[in-house]
């Protein structure tokens, strides 16, 4: 199912180029998300290319869920399963950080299973610290009262082993269909904010990240819902 549109909803504005996926409104999407958790804990995947705004969308959705059902939902990310920076460097992959083979796929899948199945105890998720350029363990608490867990990540619909297992561990997966050039511009600005020069930022965006984008986009047909970025 694809949701498209050009009308911004709920009075939202876009002062900093933040991508918006809100037609129908986030309130309607919130009701769909709540419905997933009607019979117990559910994991909702948010997938998209680099720069699509996955974590931003997850935060927006989580805010609506918190308003509707306080304490019901929590957001976690696949980014916490980046291999350590020193490991990536030792493997000669520093220039390719963020590609599918620079993540701990089996560890990520194990956490998806634990989060889905271990509803009687807390599961502590790692998160990626942009200042450290490394993952930090035990950073996000998924407690027994969290019945909806929003999981954002690039490769939730990937078909390579073992990644292909992720789709079956998620109740639904929503694909954020970003507009290409605004997405690239956001990604370039992000790298500049990390200390890249404009030239190296643009080169990374149009180089290794574009290859990653093509891989992610090839999985769009596997999504349960496709949300088009509003223009």
From TrEMBL:
Region (Disordered): 1-22
InterPro entries per UniProt: P-loop_NTPase
The entry's keywords: Kinase, Transferase
Gene Ontology molecular-function annotations: kinase activity
Record-linked PANTHER family: URIDINE KINASE (PTHR10285)
Protein's name in the database: Pantothenate kinase
């Amino acid at each position: 199912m694809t949701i498209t549109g050009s009308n911004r909803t709920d009075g939202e504005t876009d002062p900093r180029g933040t991508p918006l996926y809100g037609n129908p409104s986030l309130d309607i999407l919130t009701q769909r998300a709540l419905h997933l958790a009607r019979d117990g804990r559910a994991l909702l995947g948010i997938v998209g290319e680099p720069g699509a705004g996955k974590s931003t969308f997850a935060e927006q959705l989580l805010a609506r869920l918190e308003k509707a059902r306080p304490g019901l939902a929590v957001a976690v990310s696949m980014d916490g399963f980046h291999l350590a920076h020193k490991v990536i460097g030792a493997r000669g992959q520093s220039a390719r950080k963020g590609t599918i083979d620079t993540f701990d796929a089996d560890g990520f899948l194990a956490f998806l299973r634990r989060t889905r199945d271990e509803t009687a105890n807390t599961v502590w998720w790692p998160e990626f610290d942009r200042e450290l350029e490394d993952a930090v363990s035990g950073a996000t608490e998924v407690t027994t009262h969290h019945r909806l867990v929003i999981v954002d990540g690039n490769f939730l619909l990937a078909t390579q082993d073992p990644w292909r297992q992720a789709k079956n561990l998620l109740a639904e997966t929503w694909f954020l269909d970003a507009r290409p050039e605004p997405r690239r511009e956001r990604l370039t600005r992000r790298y500049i904010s990390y200390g890249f020069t404009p030239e190296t930022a643009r080169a990374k965006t149009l180089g290794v990240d574009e290859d990653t984008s093509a891989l992610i986009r090839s999985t769009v047909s596997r999504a349960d819902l496709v949300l088009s970025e509003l223009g």
